[in-house]
Design a protein that fits this description.
Shape: rod-shaped
Number of domains: 2
Strand content: under 5%
Structural class: mainly alpha
Helix content: over 70%
Largest sheet: none
Oligomer: single chain
Order of helices and strands: HHHHHHHHHH
Length: 291
C-alpha cells in the first residue's frame, strides 16, 4: 500500500503539481481516506496488496525469467541468508523506529494534558478576576487545539493563530503584580509550567509529520520487491509448494508493513493519536466551572 500511495504521488507530481512532494501527498491521502481506514480494513488491504503483488511477481518470473532460475545449492542458500539478513535488519530498525516515535508522541500528548491541568489548578491561588480571565484563556486554547489544530496536524500543517490564547495567558502571568507571597509563588510556578508546555507543544507540532520520508519508503518497497523476486527465482520440484511459500512470505512481510503503516503517521491513518486526554480535562474543567 505504501508503494501504491507513492506511485500516485509521483504521477501527480509528473502532471504538474510540483509544489506537492510525494511524502506530503501520502499524508493527504491518509487524511481524506481516514474514515475507511479502520485497523481491520487496513490490515486486510495491506495483506491483500502484498499477496497479490508477490503472486504477480512470481508468475511473471516463472514465465519470462525462467532462464535466471536458481538451483537449490549451498551457495544459493548463503546468498539467500545474506539478502534476508540485510533486509530484515533494515526492516526491523525502521519498524521499531516508527513505533518508538509513535509512542513518544502519544506520551507527549499525555504530558501536555497533565501540564495544562496543573496550570489550570494553580489559578486558584490568584484573585477571582485574574483567575477567571486565565481560566477562560486556557479553556479557549484547549478547545481550539482539539477542534482546529488536531485536524491540521493530520495533514502535517500548522497555524500559529491557534496558539494566541495561550500566548495571551503567558502575558497575563508575566504582567501580573502579585498581591501576596502566595500569589508570587503561584506566579513563579505558572511561568515554569508555561515554559515546559512550550517545549512539549513544539515537539508535538514539529514531529507530527510522517516518520518515514520518501527515500526510506522507497527503500522499503524496493527491498520487499527484491526479496520476493529472489525467492521467486528458486527452482522447486512442485510449483504448488513454491506458490504456497511465496504467499506465506508475502503475508509475513505484509504484517510487518502493516505495523509501519499504522505508526508512520501518528496523527492520521488507522491508529491515529486522538486528543482524548485533552477532551477529558476539558470536560473536567467545564464541570468545575459549574460548581
Amino acid at each position: 500500500m505504501i508503494l501504491l500511495l507513492n506511485d500516485i504521488a509521483m504521477t501527480v507530481s509528473l502532471q504538474g503539481c510540483k509544489s506537492i512532494m510525494p511524502s506530503q501527498l501520502y499524508v493527504y491521502l491518509l487524511y481524506f481516506l481516514k474514515p475507511m481506514f479502520t485497523i481491520p480494513f487496513t490490515l486486510l488491504l495491506v495483506l491483500a496488496t502484498f499477496l497479490a503483488g508477490a503472486l504477480i511477481i512470481f508468475f511473471l518470473v516463472q514465465k519470462y525469467l525462467s532462464f535466471l532460475t536458481i538451483e537449490d545449492t549451498s551457495h544459493a542458500t548463503i546468498f539467500s541468508f545474506a539478502i534476508g539478513t540485510v533486509f530484515g535488519l533494515t526492516l526491523a530498525f525502521i519498524t521499531v523506529s516508527t513505533w518508538q516515535n509513535y509512542n513518544r508522541l502519544n506520551s507527549i500528548v499525555m504530558q501536555e494534558a497533565t501540564n495544562l491541568t496543573t496550570i489550570y489548578r494553580s489559578l486558584d491561588a490568584f484573585q477571582p478576576a485574574l483567575r477567571d480571565q486565565g481560566t477562560q484563556l486556557i479553556t479557549s486554547y484547549v478547545e481550539k487545539v482539539i477542534t482546529k489544530e488536531w485536524p491540521l496536524m493530520a495533514k502535517s500543517q500548522f497555524n500559529d493563530q491557534y496558539f494566541a490564547d495561550f500566548h495571551q495567558f503567558q502575558l497575563l502571568m508575566l504582567r501580573h503584580n502579585p498581591a501576596n507571597n502566595a500569589e508570587l509563588i503561584a506566579q513563579q510556578e505558572e511561568l515554569r509550567l508555561i515554559s515546559e508546555y512550550y517545549k512539549l507543544r513544539i515537539e508535538r507540532i514539529t514531529t507530527s509529520k510522517a516518520a518515514l520520508d520518501y527515500s526510506m519508503t522507497l527503500t522499503l518497497c524496493l527491498g520487499a520487491f527484491i526479496f520476493i523476486l529472489y525467492h521467486s527465482l528458486y527452482a522447486m520440484p512442485k510449483r504448488r509448494d513454491h506458490i504456497l511459500m511465496i504467499s506465506l512470505l508475502a503475508i509475513s512481510l505484509g504484517l510487518i508493513y502493516f505495523l509501519i503503516v499504522c505508526h508512520n503517521t501518528p496523527f492520521s491513518g488507522p491508529n491515529a493519536i486522538q486528543p482524548d486526554e485533552l477532551n477529558r480535562i476539558l470536560e473536567l474543567w467545564k464541570i468545575d466551572s459549574l460548581k
